[in-house]
Amino acid sequence: MTNSTTYSVTVNGVTRELPSIQVGEMGRVPLVELLGDFEFTNAVADALVPLLPENAQVLLSVSTSSIPLAHAVSERKKLPYVIVRKKRRTYMRQPLIQEVPSMTLGVNETLWLDSRHATRLKGQQVVILTDVVVSGGTQEALAKLVERAGGTVCGYVSGFKQGDPRVAVQYLVELPKVL
């Protein structure tokens, strides 16, 4: 940690000063922002590839912050990826809907998986890939969507772990729960 407003983290030789943000009464936490940072996203993706289960056939992630990471890992492993939305889109047809018990930032969310994308999970070994895992609530909700779509979760992978997740996740860097 370099000062009270940032937290220093290095992945594959790329260092970032993560901003410290207030999260309710929980305190201040480091914020991982991969959106718009191709250098850091690529460093994290390169380091995550060896953590993926060998039998992985599809990556599943959630919008928005994990999208660039899912794309970068997908390119490296030549695996398709599916993104679950946090809002219903007008183009969605018969989406699978899954509630997330509680989100990190204290906001309950609903996840939406378009039925067209759900078919891509059927009969597949699916890795749930996220940028950060805290409680594991989002990962559990994603796993329920995989099961409902007819797929099997073969692993959980995240760039960063911050807390005590309820799922067995492979991760690169453990971040402090509070600063």
UniProtKB/TrEMBL annotation:
Residues 53-157 form the Phosphoribosyltransferase domain. InterPro entries: PRTase-like, PRTase_dom. PANTHER family: PHOSPHORIBOSYLTRANSFERASE, PHOSPHORIBOSYLTRANSFERASE-RELATED. Keywords: Glycosyltransferase, Transferase. It comes from Deinococcus yavapaiensis KR-236. This is Adenine phosphoribosyltransferase. It comes from the Bacteria. GO terms for molecular function: glycosyltransferase activity.
